[in-house]
Amino acid sequence: MKKTPLYEWHLAHGANMADFGGYKMPLWYPGGVKNEHLAVITGSGVFDTSHMAVVMVSGLDAHDLLQTCFTKDLDACTGKKRAPLCPGRCAYGAFLNERGEVLDDAIVYMLETHSYMAVVNSGMGGVVAQHLTAHAEGKKATLIDLTDRVGKIDLQGPLSAKILEKVLANPDAVFKTLPYFSFKGHFDTTWGPADAVRLADHTPIMLSRTGYTGEFGFEIFSAPDHIVHIWELLLDAGIESGIVPCGLAARDSLRGGAVLPLSHQDIGPWPFINHPWSFALPFNAEASSSNADTLSSNAEHAGFTKKFIGDGALGRVKHNEYTYAFSGMDPRKVTPTDPAEVLDEDGRAIGTVLTCVTDMAIGRHGNQIYSISSPDKPKGFAPRGLCCGFIKVHAKMAPGQEVVLKDNRRKITVEIVENIRPDRTARKPMAGMI
Amino acid sequence: MKEINELNLPQDVRYTKDHEWARAGGEKVVIGLSDYAQDQLGDIVFVEMPQPGDVFGKGDEFGTVESVKAVAELYMPVGGEILAVNSALEDTPEYVNQAPYTNGWIIEIKPSHPSELDELMNQDEYVSMLKGL
Fold it and tell me: Which residues of B make CB contacts under 8 Å with A?
């Protein structure tokens, strides 16, 4: 089992550790996972994410190679106008095989012309690098798997910019024009733009306006040697803001409530279509606009804006399965590994449960789900949390429809939803967060 | 995660291999979850309890505790009839984490065979078992 640079810190601070993706990782700290989950929604939390892998893609044909292998159209993916990806911007998508099945999801960063960086999941650096290498034949492209050679910390929550401001050498310049899914700086000092973001003590970092909690925040990349130092700097700077170190359990419940998939669990070795993440596929403009108000019906939309590995298979799926987000009526869950099945109103088994977690920041009031950070939450709102997650079913469903989830222990009724935790902060403009 | 020497393991209760505790008092036995179990599970967000009057045998599942990540079954340390459940846990399930042997008690029963209590582990035996895990 591998260790991240923060392993000793986690042990010294009483973390409950578990194996995840080949690494010993913290599940939660003694303050408890509920406290961690809520801190990220109302304040700020830091996550050790150095288990994730980085793959560098460079060369004259790097762009072509990624266009071939990555689901997002790099020529039409930035902002509402779908501008081409440019240096300083990044995009979320997936790497598929010829059958249209997911190898892994990724964020691809454009460092400069002919130079990109893909951030993939724990243990997937080698797999993705190999996949890209296999498709790079005859292309001028160099792949470097930087697994364990880049460290990462995620600083998440609405107070994250206020905390970061205290540790940056040049916060005004860094925060100016740093929209969602953009980044500045570099973890490698030999890189020209590395000077764009340095901590007050000159440590170079790459700072990205991304994360995987659904809340406002940053991912911080640095050389592994600096990670413990940066972690402690952030915790010190965040004392007044109530910053909390957070483990993988809070990351899982936060991303569940934010309708974000966990690779190899919610997306995996089945066709990457008919799911809530149509933004990861290069649908043409008409398809994506009509897709906004229909749920997971993207198989019916003809036409992608580019060709990519797996595209044909996605259009030829014979037995469509549909992935939907759901929300329960109370905190009670089913256990997907039991396994847990999905029953329709007549009690027929129509699919399986992929993820089932409790988002402790939300509750139902009437027909509406509110979060503790909802500006319009009912008076005295004190939620006990709602079970939520993803199901994959044979039948097409609509928001508001109810299904029953059944494991070896219990049956619970849940509702198909488009959104789970309301009033998330991830996309809030920087200006309002400093 | 707590080290074994950091665990709160009182001597006035008996323990099961599934980490429930049972405290005898007069004709009744109060049952809850050990400090070790609550520490392993993490924050409890829901406790599912039986109805007063329900009767269970030793080792039967009588409810569940639900953490953010997982659901764990609760098993009867001794058989008997449910006299009361801790209804405070409906709104404050975190009592199981904060005070597992006091405010976090789960059920009170009338044991069918009080001698079953003698088959449970005392503190020393429970600590030995935990050291072997």
Answer: 1-2, 39-40, 42-43, 45-46, 48, 64, 66-71, 73, 91, 94, 97
Nearest chain B residue to A333 by CA distance is B71
- Best residue of A19, A24, A34 to probe chain B, by most B CBs closer than 10 Å: A34
Top-tier CATH class for B12-113: mainly beta
Could you report the per-residue pLDDT of A80-128, keeping only the tens digit for each?
899 999 999 999 999 999 999 999 999 999 999 999 999 999 999 999 9
Q: Complex ipTM, two decimals?
A: 0.87
Q: What is the dihedral of CA A243, A420, A299, A103, to 10 degrees?
A: 30
Tokens representing B12 are 């006035």
Residue showing tokens 């724990």 = A122
Distance from CA of A358 to the nearest CA of B (A): 5
End-to-end CA distance of chain A: 39
pLDDT digits (tens, 9 = 90+) for A330-360: 999 999 999 999 999 999 999 999 999 999 9
Q: How far apart are CA B68 and CA B47, in angstroms?
A: 12
**Domain boundaries, given as residue ranges, for chain B:** 12-113
Task: Please give the domain boundaries of chain A with CATH numbers for all domains.
Answer: 7-50+150-256 (3.30.1360.120), 51-147+271-309 (3.30.70.1400), 321-418 (2.40.30.110)
Instruction: Sort out which chain B residues have CB atoms less than 8 A from A27's CB and list them.
Output: 42, 69
